[in-house]
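The data layer described in this paper is built around a simple, fixed record for each protein. Such a record has a labelled line for the sequence and another for the backbone structure tokens. For reference, a complete record is included directly beneath this paragraph.
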Amino acid sequence: QVQLVESGGGLVQPGGSLRLSCAASGFAFRNYYMIWYRQAPDKERELVASVAPAGGNTYYVDSVKGRFTISRDNAKNTLYLQMNSLKPEDTAVYYCRGASYWGQGTQVTVSS
């Protein structure tokens, strides 16, 4: 069955960094756009970043441009999100999505 398992979340101080991972299985990962979403308390889920199947074409929401980097390793069926210069407003549950499936999410909390 399809599985998307996120990891790497946690508590970090403002200005800090985290690297999220999403391990995929059960589908042809290399053939699909992969996307990171996030959902903050009392807010709608929003698209954060996406990456094309071959990895060369990426998209970022304006609020994370220049701070976050999405990447993928098709040999390892893994999606990444490198998050630098984190801000309190980045606090949310982060989800990966691919092939119409969702992961369970990983909590990112940015606080001093």
